[in-house]
Amino acid sequence: xxRSLFSGVAGLRTHQTRMDVIGNNIANVNTVAYKSSSVxxxxxxxxxxxxxxxxxxxxxxxxxxxxxxxxxxxxGSISTNITGPGSAQNTGSPFDIRITGxxxxxxxxxxxxxxxxAGAFNVDANGTLAMATNGYTVMGYGTTTxxxxxxxxxxxELTSLDIMSDENMISPxxxxxxxxxxxxxxxxxxxxxTTQGQMMGVPFYDNLGYSYTAQFKIExxxxxxxxxxGQYKLxxxxxxxxxxxxxxxxxxEDVGKNxxxxxxxxEDIAAGSKYTITQADVDAEATWKVAGEVKKxxxxxxxxxxxxxxxxxxxxxxxxxxxxxxxxxxxxxSSEKEAVLSAKNVFTSGSNIAYMVFDTFMTNPxxxxxxxxxxxxxxxxxxxxxxxxxxxxxGDPIVGLGLNLGGLNKFAxxxxxxxxxxxxxxxxxxxxVQNIDNKGSTTVNGKKGHIDSDAGAGCAAGEMxxxxxxxxGKITASYTNGQSKLLGQIASATxxxxxxxxxxxxxxxxxxxxxxxxxxxxITANGGSMSTGELEMSNVDLSAExxxxxxxxxxxxxxxxxxxxSDSMLEELVNLKR
Length: 578
What we know:
Radius of gyration: 43 Å
Helix content: 10-25%
Number of domains: 3
Strand content: 25-35%
């Protein structure tokens, strides 16, 4: 009789355990990425009142089964439906991430590593990606630079993801590497018949993100009134800033500044920047303007003080024409201290004059076609290569010329970037400028970027405008200057037996001996993916839970009846004495 009481009590306990699990499932029906649990029962140890016996062939007696009385029920297991996916809920938040497949996010409390399917993340004050519920940091991989200078994922170390750190919030400026000319140069353009020439502006960024425009003048090879030969002379006459101000002229803003070893004064602004002609100007065959007439500097002019407004050197920045007899001469800057752009500091070829023959630029005086002017292409003409120029910038051949901006702000008061950067070169590709009839209208202009793409266009500094997370967990930032940057990759973990993980609360799991160690990898390696703006919801099936709740209730009631009936039978037994 007592056995039935104990069996009833065991039944009540196990059904209460099942009800506890069902209640927990229902309570977490809206918990992000909650995985439902289920209970299985097992019977308890049996009391054997008679052992089984086998058949006796000698007597012909059959075997007898054992007589056993059960002692109730116990909880066999509580398993988690950890592989069952929950439905997706759209949230619109870029840091809400739903993970698919059998993978888990990896998070850390600073000392211990946990795993979760709940992708409700946010970014803390330090810019670190973390769980919104408890602040545990999301683990992943940072970036490193490969041999080509490109950012790639650094899988050597698992770390927290500081995706919105101060460093990542700003995209640094990038100097322009490539520019190109486009449009039509019509030989009948009236501008080519005047000394003004046809102007062409080539925009570029320096390495501090400031915007400038190199102003070029296109002229007929032998002068404006000469017969057109289809060959043109290209001369840089100025560089202007974003406000259209020349960077080579002093202004009120420059007063008190040290420019090229000279402190600018108000007198410099009023009277024009003064310059004393030296023997170096004679050696360089510099020219200057006297009463509107351009004259070559001679030995008799050495020691004369002129202003930058009157000196041609100060306006056209050291144009030099040479002949075959000048091959071994070394040409020097003629006016460095007065912030005059010298040939040495303008083009990679060493000259600020180029001769345009469509599809190529001739820069070799030793093999110049008959009647063609020659130009300085280096500090020593003898060092020039005997081939037409094909500039090679960042490994790409460019038909055109190079604008060398290295150290330019030493000579120009208005130039901010490229200081002492000898590699600060801008390639100017003019291979697609067309020399065709356009009814006398010339449309040549310059643009930033490679002629076939936007590569090398450069940009100003930019601020982070958005963050996107790819299906493989790679995090990319976009910036207001049009640039993008790889910030890192969210790691994922898989297990040999994910059902063996131990729940620790807060939607977290940790490894056990039966789950196996975590295998950290790229989520796509296992066919999974990540999607942003949505979360994985609970996989609790309410209809199944309510059905289980009914059967559990009935089982509990039945077991309670066992106790009631057993008690009544004991009462009858006690009443026998009355």
